[in-house]
Design goal:
The complex is a heterodimer of chains A (271) and B (318). Chain A is built from 10 helices and no strands. The C terminus of chain A is likely disordered. Chain B is mainly alpha-helical and 318 residues long. In chain B, helix 12 runs antiparallel to helix 13. Classes of the chains: A mainly alpha (271), B mainly alpha (318). At the A-B interface, helix 4, helix 5, helix 8 and helix 10 of A face helix 1, helix 6, helix 7, helix 11 and helix 12 of B. Chain A: One of its GO terms (biological process) is transmembrane transport.
């Protein structure tokens, strides 16, 4: 942890800021989330730092509460996709045989359709609520985690220490959680950052299409949807989420890159 | 049989199988989830009797498997069914829109593919120096912003502040090609930026991968210049991965189109799909879902086939 490069430090700091902002949103936001405080699309002033939105709510408060919703949904979906994806992936690698075949071919099938399209088909059938969104996004993304986890676990599964554990009679749960998991952790952690960013982009896109977080709850994609009509009049209210999403995504990417570099620098090779 | 023919036909058969599986999965999803077309028409407050009547009228009371094969057979004959909301024939409504979507994707591809390969080569040539770092910083930023926001940022700065191009991409049949291109300029730029980043990064990685081989080191030791090495030795060996990258990104483009069309109110498939998801118009969603899946699977299959064809080791079997 001592020789942390400057880019990773900045990324870590900004990421932490976003999470702190999300957790303490009610304390930080100057106004209530759905409180109409001023005129429509007021420019930024000392009273409303970012101005007001399409129905006169304080935009800074909307952005802070929006970040809370977006980050919460993305985090929950990432946790879901990682637990299901990695456990199933490890299980497939340990079990092998037809269980592996069935799971892997099912994942191939799910991944043969773009996840946005599958999500749209599902959301056409069920009511759009936050738990539904987390489930849909989490399970669709679990396919990618599954592939990575399985690939890593297949390599680990043939190591001597795993063989030793099996020979001394440890059960499958021990092999998965005590032998494979600790050794597969670094590539999975690097992937975790990328999946989280993907979730943020995914939920923002769904909300923008009107199929994600429903009003009056704020979220970054929804803020764009609400304020997009102002753009043709030169009102940039809809662009603040772009700044928020981009800085969050870049900072998480910087951290993930650093983690990935730390793990790959162990391998030798030219370049 | 020649190994190439065998591999290609295997991959083709796998593609067809996947397509069949995907259609079954999309149909199965709408079956397995609570709610159906009858519920969507009548709403949550419908009485059980009226629901049962409508289901019988729409044929929804028959087994799912029968309806699936009827639906699949219909698609194969170009009959996509009827929309629930406006009772129009779906195939007719989609025909024109699919053309528009492909038109948009085509121009985005024409611009982005050569640009991505050029930038990828440039980044490798000046690896770890400022052109490489600049390109990678810019592409990292465009990857980190969702498509629709890139769209609005461009509309705000280019269309509104600079007054260039139209913020809405309305096209119709009476426009000339030039007018159409002017109308779709902004969406094409957005799509280009989105896929360019992925394509350029993957191209760079593919060439760098080749650059680490022993024969490149030999070429370096022979004293060849950097560009000669890249052009003569690295590029021919990197063509297969690059073509693969291009195909995968074209597949990605087809999905990116969905969101970008909504931003620019472009009369294409994506907007049609999103509209009808909001209206819970199940037959339209099914039809659009299958078409998008088919394009995506088709391009992925093409990517694999090109990779097989481009592999010199398979062209000369021992």
């Amino acid at each position: 942890m001592k020789n942390i490069p400057i880019s990773a430090a900045i990324g870590l700091f900004l990421t932490a800021m976003y999470f702190v902002g999300a957790i303490f949103a009610p304390l930080l936001a100057p106004y209530g989330m759905a409180e109409v405080v001023g005129d429509v699309w007021e420019p930024s002033s000392s009273e409303y730092l970012l101005g007001t939105d399409n129905i006169g709510r304080d935009l800074l408060s909307r952005m802070i509460y929006g970040g809370r919703t977006t980050i919460f949904v993305a985090t929950m979906a990432t946790i879901l996709s990682f637990t299901t994806g990695s456990i199933l992936g490890f299980l497939a690698a340990v079990l092998g045989g037809w269980a592996d075949q069935v799971m892997s071919r099912t994942v191939d099938l799910i991944m043969s359709i773009p996840s946005l399209i599958t999500a749209l088909v599902v959301l056409a059938m069920v009511p759009v609520t936050i738990p539904v969104l987390i489930l849909v996004m989490g399970f669709l993304d679990a396919t990618r985690v599954y592939r990575l986890a399985r690939a890593v676990a297949v390599d680990i599964n043939v190591m001597d220490y795993v063989e030793a554990a099996k020979l001394r009679g440890e059960g499958r749960a021990w092999v998965i959680f005590r032998e494979i998991l600790p050794n597969a952790l670094s590539p999975l952690v690097a992937e975790l950052g990328l999946r989280f960013i993907f979730m943020v982009l995914f939920i923002s896109t769904l909300s923008f299409l009107g199929l994600g977080v429903q009003p009056p709850l704020a979220d970054w994609g929804g803020i764009v949807k609400e304020n997009k009509d102002g753009i043709v009049y030169g009102i940039g209210a809809a662009l603040y989420p772009a700044v928020a999403i981009a800085t969050l995504a870049i900072s998480v990417n910087l951290v993930a890159d650093w983690v990935l570099n730390r793990t790959t620098s162990l391998k030798g090779g030219r370049g | 049989m020649h190994p190439i023919v065998k591999l290609v036909s295997q991959r083709f058969a796998l593609g067809l199988l996947l397509l069949f599986g995907a259609s079954a999965m999309i149909f199965g999803l709408t079956e397995a989830l609570p709610g159906d077309a009858a519920q969507a028409v009548l709403g949550q407050s419908a009485t059980p009797e009226s629901l049962a009547n409508l289901r019988e009228e729409m044929g929804l009371d028959r087994p799912a498997l029968t309806r699936y094969f009827e639906w699949l057979g219909g698609i194969l004959q170009g009959d996509l069914g009827q929309s629930l909301t406006n009772k129009l024939d779906i195939a007719e409504s989609i025909g024109n829109r699919l053309g528009n979507t492909l038109f948009l994707a085509f121009w985005a591809a024409i611009v982005s593919v050569p640009l991505a390969i050029f930038l990828g080569l440039l980044a490798v040539r000046y690896r770890n120096r400022w052109p490489d770092k600049l390109i990678s910083a810019v592409t990292l930023t465009t990857i980190s912003i969702p498509e629709f926001l890139i769209g609005y940022v461009l509309v705000y700065f280019v269309a509104v502040k600079l007054g260039m191009f139209s913020p809405l991409a309305m096209i119709n049949d009476s426009m000339s090609l030039g007018q159409k291109l002017n109308a779709i300029a902004l969406p094409v730029i957005v799509l280009t930026m989105v896929v360019l980043a992925h394509m350029m990064r993957m191209t760079r990685a593919a060439i760098l991968n080749v650059m680490q081989s022993a024969y490149i080191e030999t070429a370096e030791l022979k004293g060849l210049t950097n560009f000669t090495i890249i052009y003569r030795h690295a590029l021919p060996n990197a063509i297969a991965p690059i073509v693969n990258v291009v195909m995968l990104n074209l597949a990605y483009l087809v999905v990116g189109v969905v969101v970008v069309e909504v931003v620019f109110v472009y009369p294409g498939m994506g907007q049609y799909l999103v509209d009808h998801v909001t209206k819970r118009d199940v037959p339209v969603v099914l039809a659009c879902g299958v078409i998008f899946a088919a394009i995506y699977i088709g391009l992925n299959m093409l990517a694999d086939i090109v990779a097989i064809l481009a592999n010199p080791r398979l062209r000369h079997p021992k």
